[in-house]
Structure of Ligase-associated DNA damage response endonuclease PdeM:
Amino acid sequence: MQAPVLFEFRQQRLWLSGQRCLFWEDEGLLLLSDLHLGKSGHFRKEGIAVPGAVMKEDMQRLMTLIQHFRPRQLVVVGDFFHSRANVELELFRRWRADIEEQRIVLIRGNHDILPDDWYRDNGIDVVEGSLSVGDFCLAHDPADAIPGRYTFCGHVHPGVVLNGLARQSLRLPCFYFAKDHCILPAFGRFTGLATVRPRTDETVFVIAEEKVMKIV
């Protein structure tokens, strides 16, 4: 795992990881968004061939991050799971049993439609809407940002396009720090990217080959 990059922001120490998550040192939070666990199984159930290792790789990455940062809380700002229950969620049950003492909080996203007792049985505290942390806010959708509070959110799966010579270009996932909110990159590898176009007064860190680099 590549070393995370320290970003001191609004008197907070944020460690940006090339594994598409953020460790908020001052609060002891490992913050991530849009895992979409079970998405590959959902596609296979619909007859679309998707490798079965996709979810296992994401779960292993998350376990490594928990062991590295040792957070007080793991907070997912929406779309922890992709859809209704499927066989892949049994893998999550076994994974959760290995870290049953780790507190997990989910800010419910639009894809988090499993029954409430499923989350409860798997040790996940579900929050509706948004969650206040000091002077900050955590929410799934940037539209749910609380006025006057800087909000960490997801939902968008942000990416930026970098142009090179000979009309070459790359679209890379990023951490997008706008004026009143930060959109986290989608943690899940089996997700798309939505291109964002940052202004000069905004800050963007791209993720390339698991390295975090500031571009604006």
About this structure: The mean pLDDT is 88. The two ends are 24 Å apart (CA to CA).
